[in-house]
């Protein structure tokens, strides 16, 4: 197991390198000059060149990349062109908020998804199964930003129960664990949870339904096991695949909540990313994408390791 | 002494898109410690009989009539805890495909111990030592190491040995073996057969050995019951069946054997295919394929002729002298 872990960790290095190159290049390909956003329109050519040199944008791309990555490993992600603050501070503050939102959505979605999936898988082809299937397909199909707006209309505008904007009172970005802040989390977290509920329940339904038809389930009954024992065996068999799906879903929740964060004005990475795009804030854009991508890589690593730990059929040596 | 097994007029009918009369009026008895081979081709109802005995048929789609008693216990009336105690404790089963019948994500030791804990009320450590002892008894080399192996780490023969260890761990009075050698290589088949025979002597349990291979049936059992289309068409001791088969189906099976066949001659196969069991048979099910069928065979169910104690043949012409072949 330890050697598997080490080999898997070493494998992360080339992936992380590739991710950083792509992050760097993608931003270069995008149209638009970052300087036009911050320079006055009547700036002279000399002034533009001076600015370009100040940000190192006049050097060839490989040099720019080397400088960027060199600073990066020292923890310096550069300064935001728009705000002038260090990119690291901005990104990590935002990622922390996104992580909070993603984790909350996961805490809502995964138990519900697993429970519904098991229920549908156990009572396959019954009315329970049909209800769960209808529910999960609806959940996956409904655009979640639209659902977010509908929830805002119902719970914020009409009923006035929950706030619709920001992560705290007065739109402040600082998070605290009290009701004033948590009530800001409810609507975006619920909205964000709908898609993973659908995906997880569909996956678990297919898995458990498939496992229940296997011979060993009958063999378990034949040796006198109870229904609960059998379900425990089924759960253990489904766990590896179900966890990998949930791990990837968590990755999507973190990076893919741009629309939800925009709808709810949630000061997370998606919100930061969309602002960075509109302001052509190159260092900020690169930093945010890189952090999110690396998070995905880390998520995959964790999923692989956990999977190998529960399923003996996956090669561990 | 109570009979180990007493099945009276058992009928099993599956309903659904198609109705299937899988078992039709089967009666069968076994004494303690007997080994019976249930012989028949695919779809003749052998496996269904075994599953009915363990209450494993899907309750919603199955209708069971008749009665089944194991050591005097009415199997069909068992529910809940009593049924769980009976399954694996009183009667246990070895499945055809050990690769599929073992849970892939638990060690084989755990799977044996799980059953022992349930039936004998032992704690995990003691149950594991029972499991180790069982692996030794089914002659698994370095059992200590194998205890912590997963099914996919074992060969087919080893897995079937584990399956047998699992089935016998709680000392059942009756072992149901559902074609336990069909999925194995020929050389391994013999080993498993010999092992089952030895264990039967050692443990003294009764065995129902389901097979479609008459050679295997002869090798393992004292008695043979031949099934066709959900009915028992002939029953007797193995010697009687080999030397004095009366039912044309049994004779066909014996003739279809590969032994003593001269090279280049055609194999003596039984022509035709078994009937679809959409409705309960009202005449001899074998008549359409029977070389000696009379018009009467196609009109009424054949009478059961009993030439001796525990010997019977369901054939209209069973009393006639066998024509020289």
Automatic annotation (TrEMBL), chain A:
This is Peptide/nickel transport system permease protein. It is a multi-pass membrane protein. It comes from Salipiger aestuarii. Its main location: membrane. Signal peptide: none annotated. Keywords: Cell membrane, Membrane, Transmembrane, Transmembrane helix, Transport. Residues 95-307 form the ABC transmembrane type-1 domain. GO terms for molecular function: dipeptide transmembrane transporter activity. It comes from the Bacteria. It is found in: Cell membrane. Belongs to the binding-protein-dependent transport system permease family. PROSITE patterns: ABC_TM1. PANTHER family: DIPEPTIDE TRANSPORT SYSTEM PERMEASE PROTEIN DPPB-RELATED. The keyword Manganese does not apply. GO terms for cellular component: plasma membrane. The chain crosses the membrane at residues 9-30, 99-123, 144-162, 182-200, 242-264, 284-306. The keyword Membrane applies.
TrEMBL record, chain B:
Pfam families: ABC_tran, oligo_HPY. SUPFAM superfamilies: P-loop containing nucleoside triphosphate hydrolases. GO terms for biological process: peptide transport; transmembrane transport. It is found in: Cell inner membrane. Keywords: ATP-binding, Cell membrane, Membrane, Nucleotide-binding, Transport. It is a peripheral membrane protein. Residues 7-254 form the ABC transporter domain. GO terms for cellular component: plasma membrane. One of its GO terms (molecular function) is ATP hydrolysis activity. Belongs to the ABC transporter superfamily. This is Peptide/nickel transport system ATP-binding protein.
């Amino acid at each position: 197991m330890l050697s598997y872990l080490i080999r898997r960790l070493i494998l992360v290095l080339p992936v992380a390198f590739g991710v950083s190159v792509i992050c760097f290049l993608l931003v270069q390909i995008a149209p638009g000059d970052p300087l036009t956003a911050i320079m006055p329109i009547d700036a002279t050519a000399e002034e533009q060149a001076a600015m370009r040199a100040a940000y190192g944008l006049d050097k060839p791309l490989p040099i720019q990349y080397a400088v960027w990555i060199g600073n990066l490993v020292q923890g310096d992600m550069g300064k935001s062109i728009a705000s002038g603050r260090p990119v690291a501070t901005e990104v990590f503050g935002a990622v922390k908020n996104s992580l909070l939102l993603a984790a909350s959505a996961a805490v809502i979605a995964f138990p519900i998804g697993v429970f519904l999936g098991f229920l549908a898988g156990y009572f396959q082809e019954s009315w329970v199964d049909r209800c769960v299937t209808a529910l999960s397909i609806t959940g996956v199909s409904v655009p979640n930003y639209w659902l977010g707006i509908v929830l805002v209309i119902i719970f914020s505008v009409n009923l006035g129960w929950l706030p619709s904007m920001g992560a705290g009172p007065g739109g402040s970005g600082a998070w605290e664990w009290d009701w004033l802040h948590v009530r800001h989390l409810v609507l975006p977290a619920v909205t964000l949870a709908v898609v993973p509920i659908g995906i997880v329940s569909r996956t678990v339904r297919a898995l458990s339904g498939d496992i229940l038809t296997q011979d060993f389930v009958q063999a378990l009954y034949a040796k006198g096991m109870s229904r609960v024992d059998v379900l425990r065996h089924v759960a253990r068999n489904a766990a590896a695949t179900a966890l990998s799906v949930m791990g990837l879903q968590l990755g999507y929740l973190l990076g893919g909540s741009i629309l939800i964060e925009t709808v709810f004005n949630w000061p997370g990475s998606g919100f930061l990313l969309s602002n960075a795009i509109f302001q052509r804030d190159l260092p900020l854009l690169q930093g945010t994408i890189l952090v999110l991508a690396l998070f995905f890589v880390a998520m995959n690593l964790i999923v692989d390791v956990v999977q190998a730990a529960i399923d003996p059929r996956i090669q561990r040596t | 002494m109570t009979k180990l097994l007493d099945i009276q007029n058992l009928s099993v009918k599956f309903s659904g898109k198609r109705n299937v009369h899988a078992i039709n009026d089967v009666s069968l008895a076994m004494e303690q410690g007997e080994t019976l081979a249930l012989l028949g081709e695919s779809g003749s109802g052998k496996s269904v009989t075994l599953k009915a005995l363990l209450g494993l048929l899907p309750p919603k789609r199955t209708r069971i009539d008749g009665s089944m008693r194991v050591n005097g216990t009415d199997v069909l009336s068992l529910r809940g805890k009593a049924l769980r105690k009976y399954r694996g404790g009183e009667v246990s089963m070895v499945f055809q495909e050990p690769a599929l019948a073992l849970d892939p994500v638990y060690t084989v030791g755990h799977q044996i111990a799980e059953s022992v804990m349930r039936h004998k009320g032992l704690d995990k450590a003691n149950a594991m030592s029972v499991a180790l002892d069982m692996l030794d008894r089914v002659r698994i080399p370095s059992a200590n190491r194998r205890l912590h192996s997963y099914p996919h780490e074992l060969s087919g023969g080893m897995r079937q040995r584990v399956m047998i260890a699992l089935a016998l761990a709680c000392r059942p009075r009756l072992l149901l073996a559902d074609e336990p050698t069909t999925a194995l290589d020929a050389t391994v088949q013999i080993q498993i057969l010999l092992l089952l025979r030895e264990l039967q002597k050692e443990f003294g349990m009764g065995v129902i050995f389901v097979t479609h291979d008459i050679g295997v049936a002869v090798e393992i059992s004292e008695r043979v019951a031949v099934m066709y289309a959900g009915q028992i068409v002939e029953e007797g001791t193995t010697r009687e069946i080999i030397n004095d088969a009366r039912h044309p189906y049994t004779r066909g099976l014996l003739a279809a054997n590969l032994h003593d066949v001269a090279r280049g001659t055609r194999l003596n196969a039984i022509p035709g295919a078994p009937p679809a069991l959409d409705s309960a048979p009202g005449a001899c099910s074998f008549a359409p394929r029977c070389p000696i069928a009379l018009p009467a065979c196609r009109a009424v169910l054949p009478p059961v002729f009993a030439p001796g104690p525990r010997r019977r043949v369901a054939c209209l012409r069973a009393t006639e002298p066998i024509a020289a072949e």
